[in-house]
Design goal:
Layout: H1 11-14, E1 27-39, E2 47-59, E3 63-66, E4 70-76, E5 81-90, E6 116-127, E7 131-140, E8 149-160, E9 164-175, H2 177-184, H3 188-194, E10 204-217, E11 222-233, H4 235-238, E12 247-258
Antiparallel strand pairs: 1-2, 1-12, 2-3, 3-4, 4-5, 5-6, 6-7, 7-8, 8-9, 9-10, 10-11, 11-12
């Protein structure tokens, strides 16, 4: 799994709860639950079911706690610009099947990609209510051997009504040489242990996402969201011997409640 942030392959899956009510004490609290289907790792032809718990607590001052994003602070500027800083815990990848976790028996001998604490810094511009354009950097401050990654994203609302929101999201993912090699490269020792041919990778664009998210609000407390995302591994990453399928799909539905 790409080490962008915790359950990153499911960012589109888990980050889709919508919150509209605010506690009198200044906190906006949303809980949710659902399920999704995702590849065992990016490049895998096998899929797994993933349960999706969700919690978001946001203060009026900009601080937040989110099960998909971590603990962070968002600062709004005039003209709809913003910056966002988050500390999160990125879940790595196993070289064998482990329940709901990222990993596959097809990777035996490749070793595990370690979990890591990650600093995520983003900046963007909001438009049309639910739309945004943004750039972000994911920098691990533990397990630095994993490497850094970056992304540029465009979210465009296709429909906004009093009860429904339909958006499309496109993302370009870029990895450092260390990151791309960690996720899709094969070292000499890994080649001997796994049987995959040795494969060296440099830095650059590694994947492109395209997704759709539909959210329906039953009332100001209850909502349901469904999301679908297609990811295509590109360039040399897509030619990696551990990649059995360049194009993979993520699907999820989550029901949420705002207090």
């Amino acid at each position: 799994m790409k080490l962008r942030h915790i359950f990153n392959s499911f960012a589109v899956l888990m980050g889709i709860a919508v919150s509209f009510a605010v506690f009198a004490n200044g906190y906006d609290v949303t809980i949710g639950a659902g399920g999704g289907v995702a590849p065992r790792y990016l490049g895998s032809g096998e899929y797994r079911f993933v349960p999706i718990p969700y919690l978001n607590v946001t203060s009026s001052s900009g601080f937040y706690l989110d099960t998909t994003r971590g603990v962070g602070y968002k600062l709004d500027f005039p003209q709809n610009f913003y910056i966002d800083g988050t500390i999160n815990y990125a879940v790595g990848r196993r070289d064998h099947n482990v329940g709901y976790a990222s990993g596959s028996d097809a990777l035996r001998g490749m070793g595990n990609v370690p979990n890591a604490a990650v600093l995520i810094v983003a900046a963007g511009y909001r438009f049309m209510g639910a739309g945004s354009v943004s750039v972000a950097a994911d920098v691990p401050f533990s397990q630095r051997s994993v490497g850094n990654s970056w992304r540029a994203a465009l979210k465009v609302p296709l429909m906004i009504t009093s009860t429904d929101v339909l958006t499309t999201n496109s993302v370009i993912h870029i990895g450092s040489e260390k990151y791309n090699a960690t996720m899709w490269g094969v070292t000499a020792s890994q080649s001997v242990a796994s049987g995959f041919r040795q494969y060296d990778l440099g830095g650059g664009i590694n994947a492109i996402d395209f997704g759709l998210t539909w959210t329906h609000m039953f009332d100001r407390h209850r909502s349901i969201s469904t999301a679908a995302q297609v990811t295509r591994l590109v360039g040399d990453v897509g030619d990696s011997p551990i990649v059995s399928r360049r194009v993979t799909l993520n699907l999820a539905t989550i029901v949420s409640y705002t207090f």
